[in-house]
Amino acid sequence: MADGSGTQNEQAVFPVPSSIAEHAHVDNERYLEMYKASIADPEAFWGEAGKRLDWSKPYTKVKDVSFDQSDLHIRWYEDGELNVSYNCIDRHLETRGEQAAIIWEGDDPNQSKTVTYHQLHEHVCRFANVLKKLGVKKGDRVTIYMPMIIEASYAMLACARIGAVHSIVFGGFSPEALAGRVNDCDSEYIITADEGVRGGKNVPLKKNVDEALKHAFGVKKVLVVENTGTQVAMKGGRDVWWHEAAAGVDEFCDPEPMNAEDPLFILYTSGSTGKPKGVLHTSGGYLVWASMTHEYVFDYKDGEVYWCTADVGWVTGHSYIVYGPLANGATTLMFEGVPSYPDASRFWQVVDKHNVNIFYTAPTAIRALMREGEAPVKKTSRKSLRVLGSVGEPINPEAWLWYYNVVGEGRCPIVDTWWQTETGGIMITPLPGATDLKPGSASKPFFGINPILVDADGKELEGAVDGNLCITDSWPGQMRTVFGDHERFFQTYFSTYPGRYFTGDGARRDEDGYFWITGRVDDVINVSGHRMGTAEVESALVAHDSVSEAAVVGYPHDIKGQGIYAYVTLISGVEPSDEIKKELINWVRSEIGPIASPDLLQFAPGLPKTRSGKIMRRILRKIAENDYGSLGDTSTLAEPEVVDELIENRQNR
Ligand code: PRX
């Protein structure tokens, strides 16, 4: 057993608590049995697993997949028909109509509400009828740019009900970022709110939409939910108040039968190159994956209250606030606020207020709360908690131990869940009743997942080793394409190691077969669990008139996991100053959003380049990490002296 100190952490093993093991869905023996079966015969395993959903037309085919360039396709349950909203709502009405489906907790601690499955049905049907009234049809893309109000979940489920494809853009993104995403998927409809509220501050969502629509010309209708009641401009013929449109619409709306492979949603995510990609997920396989992982990974039991603190603007909110839990008839908590408002006790007060049994958050939140000490935690009870979860980035053993010992009082297993927007749901994770825990390790693959580690040439590595993480075969929740760019789908995920899905992550496997995710091996930075492409931040910087060149890298950051470090070369005639630094940081905020703001910005008269003009990022990363003693060979640089200048003026000391 661990004592929580220093270097022993990585060796520490926390056995499954017997209180959990006794009642868990699966113990280790059962996990191994099911895992073996899922790998040996995926058709049989997923054929059976698909029955957890209600199909209006049952499938007869289970899996049809090729990762080859000439014929790249991924299909699951391809002749089946179902409706996702029916599966998340209607099928529960008979048995749990009066049970809480969603508990909504406001940013203001005095505001919360509970919506039963019956009420959810009515709200979603109305919302769906409003969308129909606006002209939304099956297959249309609907952009959702909303705060964490309960209507965001109605909007998602209403789209699913009528077969429209939602594309949620996180409310923290700028008008420019919103416009880019609206245009990329030719979205003619936007759903938004007058304003959002987070941490006591108002976010001008409708105003941002108006700004975005100066660069997005295809939008026909903007549906606006009244939230704070602030005055906003409404453009005649285009902008529609939700409450006005909803007056008099029917409270029933038949769910549209959808093919299993009809799109459910698009979600934009950053990669190492180019614009954000529209990750496309479809209906049947995605919902099987979201619901099955939700049940097993969190060991969800009927009647429990489950809380995932993510925002619906990220994939975690899609799969583990809305689709997974509701497909399972769970009670899911949706939180509008932030962990630090009104104070650092908020999470635990919400846990006590609603008797939360399962709590799922990100390491960055844990690290931020850890800094505030134990007192804000200890003044709450947290007795209802049974299982804790972590997602989004590697959790350092120190934060893990604090989460385990202080928050969970040593009684709650932590499931450190590794997955991606692209994977639709959790891929590598402990199971509460089955897996002995090692702080910092995402541990073992979920059913059907065969993770392998390969070297730079694609050779599969055996035993305890470090390598690039690939998945050998498809799983039902896998993304199906990059919206509008199938070739990019191939190039991004299947071209590096032919025949395999390449995750972009590095990982280590230990002697016990546990996986330890070491982080991205491409030019993606993980800031507070959110993915940011360095290329995106660079192109925002060079779009500024004073910038001639920019290079962006990540560096270790105590709270965010990784921070953004920007090297900027100004055009001749513009002198470095604190004012221009501030201006550039604000510029990036307004071009992309606050999550993309550089934490450190260094003016660089020149960037280290090879003679062929390629920026040597390895060197820039080392300097940003304040590890300039081991730069390696710099003799191939066109101008080796620029490195000395960069070291001299480094910002991270
Ligand atoms: O690098 C991995 C990291 O987050 C990336 C996926 O980011 P995104 O698509 O935004 O999805 C985040 C929520 C699923 C991965 O490539 N990551 C995610 N979870 C973990 C993680 N790294 C280590 N441990 C995790 N549990």
Automatic annotation (TrEMBL):
Cofactor(s) recorded in Swiss-Prot or TrEMBL: Mg(2+)
Transmembrane parts of this sequence: none
Binding-site positions, CoA: R198, G199, G200, K201, T316, S528, R589
Modified residues (N6-acetyllysine): K614
Start and end residues of each Acetyl-coenzyme A synthetase N-terminal domain: 31-88
PTM comment, free text: Acetylated. Deacetylation by the SIR2-homolog deacetylase activates the enzyme.
Record: residues binding ATP: G392, E393, P394, D416, T417, W418, W419, Q420, T421, D505, R520, R531
An example molecular function term from Gene Ontology annotations: acetate-CoA ligase activity
InterPro entries assigned to the protein according to its UniProt record, in alphabetical order: Ac_CoA_lig (IPR011904), ACAS_N (IPR032387), AMP-bd_C (IPR025110), AMP-bd_C_sf (IPR045851), AMP-binding_CS (IPR020845), AMP-dep_synth/lig_dom (IPR000873), ANL_N_sf (IPR042099)
UniProt keyword terms in alphabetical order: Acetylation, ATP-binding, Ligase, Magnesium, Metal-binding, Nucleotide-binding
EC number(s) reported in the record: 6.2.1.1
Binding positions (Mg(2+)): V542, H544, V547
Magnesium found in the keyword field: yes
Domain AMP-binding enzyme C-terminal, chain residue ranges per copy: 536-614
UniProt cross-references to Gene3D superfamilies, sorted A to Z: 3.30.300.30, N-terminal domain of ligase-like
Catalytic activity: acetate + ATP + CoA = acetyl-CoA + AMP + diphosphate
Role: Catalyzes the conversion of acetate into acetyl-CoA (AcCoA), an essential intermediate at the junction of anabolic and catabolic pathways. AcsA undergoes a two-step reaction. In the first half reaction, AcsA combines acetate with ATP to form acetyl-adenylate (AcAMP) intermediate. In the second half reaction, it can then transfer the acetyl group from AcAMP to the sulfhydryl group of CoA, forming the product AcCoA.
Family, per entry: Belongs to the ATP-dependent AMP-binding enzyme family.
Listed name of the protein: Acetyl-coenzyme A synthetase
Source organism (scientific name): Ponticaulis profundi
